[in-house]
Amino acid sequence: MRYLTSGESHGPQLTVIIEGVPANLEIKAEDINTEMFKRQGGYGRGRRMQIEKDAVEIVSGVRNGYTLGSPITLVVTNDDFTHWRNIMGVAPITDEERENMKRTITKPRPGHADLIGGMKYNHRDLRNVLERSSARETAARVAVGAVSKILLEQLDIHMYSRVVEIGGIKDEGLYDTETFKQNIDKNDVRVIDESIAQKMRDKIDASKKEGDSIGGVVQVMVENMPVAVGSYVQYDRKLDGRIAQGVVSINAFKGVSFGEGFKAAEKPGSEIQDEILYNSESGFYRGSNHLGGFEGGMTNGMPIIVNGVMKPIPTLYKPLNSVDINTKEDFKATIERSDSCAVPAASVVCEHVVAFEVAKAITEEFQSNHIDQLKAQIEERRRLNIEF
Ligand SMILES: Cc1cc2nc3c(=O)[nH]c(=O)nc-3n(C[C@H](O)[C@H](O)[C@H](O)COP(=O)(O)O)c2cc1C
């Protein structure tokens, strides 16, 4: 599987083409949209999310509700475009019109792509950079992940995500799979421990009041993965490595770890390696899951646990110093409409980015021209874990 997204933040639409989805998979736009709405929620989002109501239209690759095996094209219309028609239109404009355009940006924001993107592509209106570097693009990635999740569900593989930390307020709970599953989406900060939720909201409010922003940590779980997906034989076939690349490619994500992650540095090996056990019903399994489901870049059948670290959002209402690219004078960076904390939404994005990497690895590992063929091979792999 592979995909390509296109579209600017305030342009007419986001488009994504996904290739490699097995044929005969039942797909409904409503199921994709349920996931799209989740990305738009979360305490601490700015006004943009109230303007847009993201919904995908499927325009290719699906006929009468089932995939054809051909590329699937999804379109998300930007409702906000009507207000940006003059600024973001495709047709050429006169120099005078350009001159009169009020929305030219020459003051790059620290921490965003503005300055370096402008240098790279020779843009003197930094809007040309921020329109694409904006996290609006993650809506398209959630759409891809939603299709991936529909495929994974058919294979009895399930995805969940939660918020672990916002601005230093942590949910320290070590949750078992059942508790994790049953407690997602129960509040607007997507945290399992309800007693922490209000503290997180207070922290978001406090940072918003100060004109500041905060980041956090999110966690994704993949349940019921067949064993031995990915490979140890080459660097770019290690599935944990590929997931790590996907996660760090999400806007503002600066770190990734698996299972107990960085805590592994402090603990002895006897408390980190997961002991191997066997019973005739489920085959090989582990007494713990410190490593988050990977050994040698391959799934070991335990739930995959991925942690992602998001930095605070760069656009601040209390702007930091920057330098105007025309006058070279010090300035306070331009304020573009912005969220103060997007960690709950980012947990949804992270889940979908991981979903795609997992679905991609599965369609590479097994013959997957059509869904029945893939299901049969997954069954066979699950038997291997018992019969080996
Ligand atoms: C769900 C989500 C929402 C975001 N919203 C904003 C935002 O409103 N304002 C902003 O400046 N950055 C926002 N970001 C982060 C920027 O897109 C990101 O910091 C920027 O593209 C620069 O990339 P880098 O931080 O990875 O270097 C958001 C990120 C995510 C994942």
Separation, N- and C-terminal Cα atoms:
29 Å
Give the averaged pLDDT, no decimals: 94
Helix content: 25-40%
Approximately what portion of the residues adopt beta-strand conformation? Answer: 15-25%
Query: What is the general shape?
Result: globular
Order of H and E elements? EEHHEEEEHHHHHEEHHEHEEEEEEEEHH
| Rg result | 22 Å
Pairing-aware structural class of the strands and helices? alpha+beta
Low-confidence stretches: none
What binds here, in terms of ligands, is: flavin mononucleotide
Q: Could you tell me the number of beta strands?
A: 17
Order of strands, main sheet, comes to 8-7-9-15-10
Enumerate how many helices there are, as a single number: 12
Largest sheet: 5 strands, antiparallel
Structure report:
The protein is of the alpha+beta class. The protein is 34% helix and 20% strand. The protein contains twelve helices and 17 strands. The chain has helices at 29-40, 48-51, 85-88, 95-100, 114-121, 127-133, 138-154, 177-182, 194-209, 239-248, 343-365, 371-387; strands at 2-6, 13-19, 56-60, 62-63, 66-67, 72-77, 158-166, 169-170, 216-223, 253-258, 276-279, 283-286, 294-295, 298-299, 304-310, 321-323, 330-332. The strands form six sheets. Strands 8-7-9-15-10 form a five-stranded antiparallel beta sheet. The protein has a four-stranded antiparallel beta sheet with strand order 1-2-6-3. Strands 4-5 form a two-stranded antiparallel ribbon. Helix 5 packs across helix 6 (127-133) and helix 10 runs antiparallel to helix 11 (343-365). It is globular, with a radius of gyration of 22 Å. The model has no long low-confidence stretch (mean pLDDT 94). Bound molecules: flavin mononucleotide.
